[in-house]
Amino acid sequence: MYEETDEKWESFMNYIRYSIKHPDETPNNVIFLSLSKEEITHLFTNRRIELIEFLKEKGPSIMTDIARSLKRELSAIKRDMKLLERLGIVDLEKNGRAVTCSIEGEVLVLPLSKPMKLKQIKAIAGK
Fold first, then answer.
1. CATH of domain 45-109
2. How many CB atoms lie within 10 A of CB 119?
3. pLDDT score for 37
């Protein structure tokens, strides 16, 4: 199970500081999800993480090809991809009978605790 540590939180805050100070060097399309530990465990199963990693490595792929490559049932891939689409992580584009899956954002950051307002983040980044 995930354990929040000061080191992990500081790493996240360093990313935020760097992004604010160097906007041209950081991705424009970043997805931020603030989830409880229970939500993370429920939403980010090993299989869904495997899908995200597959798409990051291979790029946009047809859903049937993903199922074949990962040796999973197409129905399970569809279910997981639709959930990841609702979270804004993947984009699903239907072209006839084929559905192409692609990563929607360039970076996935999961701030797991200590939620902060943007003003607080900017104040910290100014340190």
1. 1.10.10.10
2. 8
3. 66
Helix, strand, or coil here: 43? helix
- The pTM (predicted TM-score) of the whole model is 0.63
Helix count and strand count (H, E) for the chain = 6, 5
Structure confidence by residue, pLDDT tens digits, 28-70: 666 666 666 677 777 778 899 899 999 989 999 999 999 999 9
| Closest to 44 (Cα-Cα) out of 108, 116, 113 | 108
Query: Are 114 and 35 contacting, i.e. CB atoms less than 8 angstroms apart?
Result: no
- Specify whether the CB–CB gap between 67 and 101 falls below 8 A: no
Give Cα 49 distance to the centre of its chain.
9
Integer Cα distance of 89 and 1 in angstroms: 22
Element (H or E) spanning 103, and its range? strand 98-103
Nearest C-alpha neighbor of 103 from the set 58, 44, 73? 58
Extract the tokens encoding 95.
């072209």
| Domain boundaries of the chain, sorted by first residue | 1-36+111-127, 45-109
C-alpha closest to that of 14 among 109, 104, 89: 109
